[in-house]
């Protein structure tokens, strides 16, 4: 039997072109040639999950009461641990019953939220360059993306005053992300206040992605969106255990804030997934209750790496700022290059994989993203190789 031509839905066919495909192909070819690749392209912690968390999972996995369907909204004990952590970390009070929702990784919540609030033709405000899930989830829900360009001129913050009134009128959601992927820029409480006022004025729900709130440097802790007055009236905050505790593979995160907004997300989730494995939530409780010394150690490791890579790049004459948080370094490409050509150059001449900035949206053109998810020694070698290659 020959079958019939399989046709994809429009929402699949209109996904943005996979900008990293060309890089992937070049990377595979280099590996085949025997090149010792230094991968500064991945945003995934290379260090292991702390042992206490793994032990908590092992214990909980052995308990038959955890083998059945979990609740949609998450275990109350996990949500209480989130509320306790929020109070300790941000001095923000949350009701664990109505203001905390367990997620199967924060990407899951970010990907689903437009389905709860966006009708066909509604606008979603999306920072760009940014996490690709924001625009894709918007389009999956039938919404229209309005990009908020993050440029050097505005300190890589969205310029809310530049959003036309006609767009603001049609907007239902606004995504924000601090500390930012890919720029690493941290939003101040003043910016959050401006965003709350904007949201109130135009009746827009704010979804703040705080996946990197615990990966910060020089002891300067980023603020939570919920620390500013009125934030809970207009939005929610997404968090992840992935980056904080080296748990990207475990799939656990949470959303906190406005109960009606969380309820909308829960309605979607309860029809699509059946909650997060309880043993992983037990491990999540162990993670959130860990002594700060554990996460301090992780931060110290990233900071040491940052302090190898960034001064090294500066010495080579590249334009780059030391990131205050997150594990990304946002590097301006030298004159005569574009994001794609500089990425290709580094791979060909130095065996270094980076990510072209325009892969995070057109306003990222002219930059590349490097990560510090590899050892100091490898980062030093990357700088050395760039020097030898004339970059
Ligand atoms: C890594 C990342 C996430 C998602 O992490 P999960 O593993 O799904 O919790 C969310 N937002 C940004 C900006 C990220 O970089």
Architecture overview:
This protein is of the alpha/beta class and 391 residues long. The protein contains 14 helices and 13 strands. The protein folds into two domains: 13-42 and 293-388, Alpha-Beta Complex (Aspartate Aminotransferase, domain 1), CATH 3.90.1150.10; 52-290, 3-Layer(aba) Sandwich (Aspartate Aminotransferase, domain 2). It has helices at 10-13, 21-32, 51-61, 76-90, 106-117, 133-140, 165-170, 189-202, 231-234, 259-272, 278-288, 292-315, 339-350, 376-388, and strands at 38-39, 100-103, 123-128, 144-149, 171-177, 205-209, 235-240, 253-257, 319-320, 328-332, 352-353, 355-356, 367-371. The strands form three sheets. Strands 2-8-7-6-5-3-4 form a seven-stranded mixed β-sheet, sandwiched between helices. Strand 5, helix 8 and strand 6 form a beta-alpha-beta unit. Helix 4 runs parallel beside helix 11 (278-288) and helix 5 (106-117) runs parallel beside helix 6. It starts with 9 loop residues before the first helix and ends with a helix. The relative contact order is 0.17. The model has no long low-confidence stretch (mean pLDDT 96). It binds pyridoxal-5'-phosphate (PLP). The site of pyridoxal-5'-phosphate has 14 residues, from helix 5. Pyridoxal-5'-phosphate binds at residues 43, 105-107, 131, 177, 181, 209, 211, 240, 242-243, 248, 253.
């Amino acid at each position: 039997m020959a079958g019939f031509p399989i046709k994809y839905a429009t929402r699949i066919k209109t996904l943005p072109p996979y900008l990293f495909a060309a890089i992937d192909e070049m990377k595979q070819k280099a590996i085949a040639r025997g090149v010792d690749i230094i991968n500064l392209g991945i945003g995934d912690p290379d260090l292991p999950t702390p042992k206490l968390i793994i032990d908590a999972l092992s214990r909980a996995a052995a308990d038959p009461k955890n083998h059945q369907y979990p609740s949609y909204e998450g275990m109350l004990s996990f949500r209480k641990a989130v509320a306790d952590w929020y109070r300790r970390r941000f001095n923000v009070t949350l009701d664990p019953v109505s203001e905390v929702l367990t997620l199967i990784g924060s990407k899951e919540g970010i990907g689903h939220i437009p389905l709860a609030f966006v009708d066909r033709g509604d606008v979603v405000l999306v920072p760009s360059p940014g996490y690709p899930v924001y625009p894709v989830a918007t389009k999956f829900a039938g919404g229209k993306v309005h990009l908020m360009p993050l440029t050097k001129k505005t300190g890589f913050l969205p310029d809310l005053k530049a959003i036309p009134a006609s767009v603001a009128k049609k907007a239902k959601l606004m995504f924000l992300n601090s500390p930012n992927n890919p720029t690493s820029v941290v939003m101040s409480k003043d910016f959050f206040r401006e965003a709350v006022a904007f949201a109130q004025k135009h009746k827009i729900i704010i979804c703040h992605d705080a996946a990197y709130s615990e990966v910060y440097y020089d002891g300067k802790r980023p603020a939570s969106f919920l620390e500013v007055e009125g934030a809970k009236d207009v939005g929610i905050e997404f968090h992840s255990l992935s980056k904080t505790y080296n748990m990207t593979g475990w799939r656990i995160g949470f959303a906190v804030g406005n109960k009606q907004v969380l309820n909308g997300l829960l309605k979607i989730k309860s029809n699509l997934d059946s909650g997060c494995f309880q043993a992983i939530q037990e491990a999540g409780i162990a993670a959130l209750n860990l002594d700060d010394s554990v996460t301090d150690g992780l931060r110290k490791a990233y900071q040491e790496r940052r302090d190898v890579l960034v001064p090294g790049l500066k010495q080579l004459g590249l334009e780059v700022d030391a990131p205050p948080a997150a594990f990304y370094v946002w590097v301006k490409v030298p004159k005569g290059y574009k994001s794609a050509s500089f990425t290709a150059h580094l791979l060909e001449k130095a065996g270094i994989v980076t990510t072209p900035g325009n892969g995070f949206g057109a306003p990222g053109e002219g930059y590349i993203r490097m990560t510090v998810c590899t050892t100091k020694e490898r980062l030093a070698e990357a700088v050395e190789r760039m020097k030898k290659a004339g970059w």
